[in-house]
Amino acid sequence: MADLVLGISAYYHDSAAALVADGVPVAAAQETFTFEGRTSVLGVTDKLLGPTPHFVELGHTFPSALADEATAAAELAVAALDAPGFDFGPAHVEAKLTPRGPVLIEVNAHTGGDFIPDLVHHATGVELLRQSVVAHSGGRPDLTPTRAEGAAIRFIAGRSGTVTGVPDPGVLANFPSVVAFRTKAEAGRRTVWPSHSHERLGHVMTRAASPARAAVQADAALAHLAPVYEE
């Protein structure tokens, strides 16, 4: 596994050159749960990244649409967890997909952020947080999927300028696949193109019969939540 680990400085703002060594990154995350020493991969999350140099995450789709790449990334995740002896609980393992195969970016001994556990729940029926509580309470977690659908989330990026108007979220009634949304944009607020996730202005989440359909619906709904700026 050593040749699949990308060693970069902990001060990640200085590591852009390493991250783009093979071009604009294609990122994926593996959502796993380990119990009694056995790791189950619930699925791989496709990540939508913003432009250089910050690569802020602008969306996620679960499960992955990249069949072969997702399989290789899942195998890498299990190896990455086995290496230090990780043997209990949820984990979120991130990788960069390259022409040479997946390259390990980070291993997190917790569920993913950015509402990823919600995506897993909407797509598979598995409630990662609930099953974590079960396992930590001495029970046996149930990781059996009860459905095979897709879920996606897209984040409102905003741009540099002053917001003059915010769309009526009632328009989302036209998108029955929307299961959650939030907007922090408001008239008079000055915003910037996000250099980190805390500068994003909200999100919209969808659930559909397939990951591709959920992604299309999330993109369409996001377009109706875009703030209006002064010109």
UniProtKB/TrEMBL annotation:
Keywords: ATP-binding, Ligase, Nucleotide-binding. It comes from the Bacteria. It comes from Streptomyces broussonetiae. GO terms for molecular function: ATP binding; ligase activity; metal ion binding. This is ATP-grasp domain-containing protein. It holds the Pfam family LAL_C2. Residues 75-137 form the ATP-grasp domain.
